[in-house]
Design brief:
heterodimer; A: alpha+beta; Jelly Rolls; Phage tail protein beta-alpha-beta fold; 13-stranded mixed beta sheet; three-stranded mixed beta sheet; about 35% helix; flat; B: mainly alpha; Rna Polymerase Sigma Factor, Chain: A; Arc Repressor Mutant, subunit A; 2 domains; 8 helices; about 75% helix; globular
């Protein structure tokens, strides 16, 4: 209880609301023992750091603005309607029947078409080294990686939100339990209700890979009766050649590195880091010294580029780094600490 | 009090002409900041986002009758905080708040390891703040992040200054224990 009293005084001091008598009581307490100023410093540091508090939430400004835009437009449409004041007179009965028949005919035609074609779809494409991000009419936010193609309708109708992907994209699907979001790729279908995940499905790639950041995702390969339901921090990999479907834990968000630009490693073997760098930056890295591949790498690399990371690795393990034409790197000598 | 910036004045003018682009510019600039502000008090990201959506929708609906004194940013912030307080009063739930300036980039000079360590300490503190029980978190947010004085908090939440001091002491003790456990 005694200590609480002083924590309360320390707080008031930091907050700037200590009275003169409280101030002198605090000063006196600080002089009593050597531990007291230490406690004061610790609490002061924590108080300062607490100002940097960032809640662990994801905020998608682009998608959320889309929701606001639609709300504004709906409101405008309503205002317009209200302004028109059109008087609807009762019509003759047979007209109503005719209208009903027309609706049935139109919807029949629509069902027929819906199942056969997708040629009302819009297409977004990216070339090599190009990325795009855009928001669909339902508020779903898509980040499209290079060499990819994504087809989607201008507006979603029917029981599903149906889209197609060739290549790689990160999805932040807006929630709509009544209308699942279905992505078709050459080899698989992915069904979700509302979630965020990375999907890698290049047509020339060996696998279809889904890494989930949020919510639930169902991965359904076309040539397999199996399917996987993936949740937070799980990754599903479908090997096209073997038709095998496996689930893994996702240790980091490095799978969506191409979108975030940040790589994070914690006690990761060097050989794994090197394999990642080769994959993400399309380079070759040779480790000359045996066993160095087992050294553990820890670090967070925002705006990561291969050269900086390799330089960091070389200096932490006393290795020598050399490069040939910027595409091939060699790491020599060194020792795990 | 901060004054309306030239940029903000232009936005408000365009908004008056029902320019959707102006709404988007304001949204892009302040949305994150406002959601974090709301989250800190409410401690629920869906409610925080909904609430901020409502504030923006209101801004647009009332574009012809807006009376922005001071900066648009503080106007929006005040609108968000007031709604949050209304909501916590109604639901008797709670949370914390924060300055967007703190989203700054990490110092370039510190090594990736140091960065990870500082980040871990920061995360321990963040988690401790996340774990503060309802009213405690709410008081902490208003005191630490909104910078309200004890008198102001007492008036807003209709509680005594003594209660505020007790809640703040409790919060600092929880943070202290979390950091001590981490080291």
């Amino acid at each position: 209880m005694e200590k609480d009293k002083y924590i309360s005084l320390i707080y008031k001091k930091l907050k700037g609301e200590a009275s003169p008598s409280e101030q002198s009581a605090l000063d006196e307490w600080l002089n009593i023992s050597e531990d007291n100023p230490l406690l004061f410093q610790q609490i002061k540091k924590e108080w300062e750091l607490s100002a940097n508090y960032i809640p662990n939430i994801e905020i998608d400004t682009k998608a959320d603005f889309e929701l606001l835009r639609q709300r504004v437009r709906q409101h405008k449409a309503k205002e317009k309607q209200a302004a028109k004041i059109v008087q609807l007179r009762p019509r003759r009965q047979w007209l109503a029947w005719a209208a009903a028949a027309a609706i049935i005919l139109i919807s029949g035609w629509w069902f027929f078409n819906k199942n056969n074609i997708a040629d009302n779809m819009l297409v977004a494409q990216t070339a090599a080294a190009e990325k795009k991000d855009f928001v669909l009419s339902d508020g779903t936010h898509i980040w499209l990686n290079e060499n990819s193609s994504f087809s989607y309708p201008e507006n979603f109708t029917g029981k599903q939100r149906f889209v197609k992907l060739e290549g790689e994209a990160y999805f932040k699907v807006s929630k709509n339990k009544k209308m699942p979001f279905v992505i078709e790729t050459a080899e698989a279908k992915i069904k979700v209700l509302g979630t965020a995940f990375n999907l890698r499905a290049y047509t020339d790639g060996p696998v279809v890979e889904v890494a989930v950041d949020e919510g639930k995702v169902q991965l359904m390969p076309k040539n397999s009766k199996q399917s996987l339901v993936l949740t937070l921090n799980k990754k599903g990999v479908y090997d096209i050649a073997n038709r095998s479907l496996k689930e893994f834990n996702v240790e980091t968000k490095n799978a969506s590195f191409w979108k975030t630009g940040t790589l994070v490693y914690k006690d990761t073997p060097l050989e794994k880091v090197v394999a990642d760098l080769e994959n993400y930056f399309n380079i070759e890295i040779k480790i000359e010294t045996e066993n160095m591949g087992q050294c553990r790498v820890t670090g967070r690399f925002p705006n990561a580029n291969a050269k900086d990371i390799l330089e960091h690795i070389a200096s932490s393990f006393q290795m020598e780094l050399s490069s040939k034409g910027g595409r091939i790197y060699e790491l020599k000598k060194g020792a795990c600490q | 009090m901060q004054t309306t910036t030239t940029e903000e004045k232009e936005w408000l003018q365009l908004l008056l002409k029902d320019d959707e682009k102006a709404l988007q510019l304001i949204f892009d600039r302040y949305y994150k900041y406002l959601v974090v502000t709301a989250y800190n008090v409410l401690h629920d990201d869906h409610r925080a986002k909904d609430l901020v959506q409502d504030v923006f929708f209101d801004l647009w609906k009332r574009r012809e009758n807006l009376k922005v004194q001071g900066s648009l940013k503080s106007y929006l912030r005040k609108a968000v905080v007031n709604r949050c307080i209304d909501e916590t009063r109604r639901k008797k739930r709670s949370g914390t708040t924060e300055e967007i300036q703190d989203f700054n980039q990490p110092d370039q000079h510190i090594s990736p390891q140091q960065q990870l360590e500082t980040e871990e300490l920061q995360q321990v503190i963040n988690r401790a703040i996340d774990s503060l029980p309802g009213r405690c978190r709410e008081v902490f947010a208003l005191s630490r992040f909104e910078g309200f004085s004890h008198k102001e908090i007492a008036a807003k939440l209709d509680i005594s200054v003594k209660t505020i001091e007790n809640q703040m002491t409790k919060a600092l003790k929880i943070i202290r224990a979390a950091v001590a456990g981490f080291r």
